Amino acid sequence: MQRGKEGFSVLRYLIYFSQVGFTVITPPVLCCFGAIWLRNRFGWGNGAVIIGILLGIAVAACSLRDFLRFTERKARESAEKEKEL
């Protein structure tokens, strides 16, 4: 029985790792492409692209912070559950 729990634990950490990558990479990329599209479509300057990149980095940082809080809460709950057993 113990071996199955370890397998789920490894899978859980793999999912967390991929979620962090997706959470950190996606916002800057989407904001950058959106800013480039706005620049080309409406003739805005390169300042729009810089603002888009900075906005994407800020969103990625907020998402990473929220994810780290989530994992810390889950680890605390898991430790409390093991302590009860």
Automatic annotation (TrEMBL):
InterPro entries: ATPase_put
Transmembrane helix is among the record's keywords: yes
Transmembrane segments: 12-38, 44-64
Keyword terms, alphabetized: Membrane, Transmembrane, Transmembrane helix
A matching Pfam family: ATPase_gene1
Name used for this protein in its record: AtpZ/AtpI family protein
Organism of provenance: Butyricicoccus faecihominis
